[in-house]
Amino acid sequence: MAVQNGDRPVFRALALPHLDALLARAGLDEADRLRARAVAEVLPFRTNSYVVDELIDWRAAPEDPMYRLVFPQPDMLPRADVDRIARMLREGASADRLRADVHEIRLRLNPHPSGQRDLNTPLLDGVPAEGMQHKYAETLLFFPRQGQTCHAYCSYCFRWPQFVGEPDLRMASGDAEALTSYVRAHPEITSVLITGGDPLIMSSAVLARYVEPLLEIPHLESVRLGTKALSYWPHRFLTDPDADELLRLFERVVRGGRNLALMGHYSHPRELEPEPAVRALRRVQDTGAVVRCQAPLIRGVNDRAEDWAVLWRRLVAQGAVPYYMFVERDTGPQDYFAVPLARAHELFREAYAQVSGLARTVRGPIMSATPGKVQVDGVAEVGGRRAFVLHYVQARDPELVGRPFFAAYDPDARWLTDLKPLPGDGPLPGLD
Ligand code: SF4
After folding, report:
1. At residue 1, does pLDDT exceed 60?
2. What is the pLDDT of residue 361?
3. Does 151 sit in the ligand 1 pocket, CB within 6 Å?
């Protein structure tokens, strides 16, 4: 399935028209294929020939973690919704009817968790600055219009509304000047995170149009790029026609005295097995960029402590820095993929205990919630009751950062808003 142009692998996306054949390759019967296709009408599906040929173990599909990472599962959404869309597909419903029903389901999936749109969109000259989020004083998130897709889509993606072709669900901006003006006007911003989608889906020339003006701003200390290209399409850094241009851009940022941080999304140790993935990581680091690695904990994909320990060890061996283990966010197919906080903490602790101090840069499990990033530190006895011990790693209100707090232990809680204070305590910090 891989496409070559001479010695150069050529990116080939696989989308809805290819889905049924791939589901059949995974061994799904006709009924389950239809249900998986129904899910793919609601949530985005895209993979590519590298993922299919190099990452997925088809002998183990549909249980294979890399398969589950990118393919829709027949039971990923509420049964009644999947049945309804499957019936419409079977009966050949009109595109308009299908679109309306799909839209209604999407709105019930909390498309913009954590107040992303209402609370985080900043004002530039009194007008909401589209495609930017300023949640934490030091960090600005920017969503470049050309970067709102990925080389493949994760089935659990929390940014799914960026990809479903509904403009009112999407955040994006093509305005590099607005980005620069906003950062220049806010000396508290020391870091810009360019994210998506995946900003490395953009050509190097387009990415440079956003990045280079930022280097003129004295108070900016780092540029971060949120990406899964190192896993899903490492040839982006090796043999793509503008791969070298990309690496030269990274070098310019570093030579300009800034930290260029590639926030690499690595979900499973298998992503570091193919030789191009290792070479790509090395090439990026040779520019002086730092690769920090993060991913959510996902049921059926990476919910084994052993996988995280191996992943973090492999990353450290390759010179990368383990950064965050997230908890699946309260959006999209959370019900299907989430691991309860109590279990997430056990897995984190078990994995953390198996790695050297160099890998213990990692923090987790972390909820990126409305008031901030909350880490579950453990479970303790407080006044004779079991309690979660938590703290804010980052918060909209800096006063909350680094202060431990308690919540009543609940083995099934999956998110900050599921937690209750201990009897006699006031509301949880940030939720009052
Ligand atoms: S790489 Fe990130 S943005 Fe892209 S599909 Fe996966 S989780 Fe979503």
Report:
1. no
2. 98
3. no
